[in-house]
Amino acid sequence: MVTYTIKKLKTKDFTGIEKANIDNILWGGTYKPECFAQxxxxxxxxxxxxxxxxxxxxxxxxxxxxxxDDVCDDSCMEWFIDFLPGNEKGYINFxxxxxxxxxxxxxxxxxxxxxxxxxxxxxPTLEAGRDGEFWWVEYFLSLDVIRKIFGKINLSSGAEYxxxxxxxxxxxxxxxxxxxxxxxxxxxDYHRPDFFGKFIME
Length: 202
Known about the structure:
mainly beta
């Protein structure tokens, strides 16, 4: 199982933060742009996840502020996270595009999902931008939102969570299916917590 250590910081700063390479090609694809993810925990605030991809011209159909199940048709980078592995509520899926369109829900698998805004009345923060040859998305998941969904979670050193990072683009010129933690099934499905990797709090 792949693992990633989440650094605890006083303020948001991704400088020098470990990169999780999103480099496993899935489901017969061949397109493999350079992609990686970084996650930090800022004390008394919450979790920030920044995913970066080296693409000159990402596909943007959905616009900033759009909320749709189909944002994965565009150039999209995703973070799935389960703070209480094995719990009955499941995991959160964050799916964001280069234009900051988003899909985000909570559930135990692909079909049993509830949009997060319908569950708690708000959405986590998503920003998107470009840094040189890379475009990026950045998710912020506050402790308040986490508690509304999961209740109290373990934030101490050594706490373990489960999750994965993905890069996709189902309708892009070069369709991409990439993952940090490999998914060993024959047909496309990112909603597979049985193939999640491990996140460990520093």
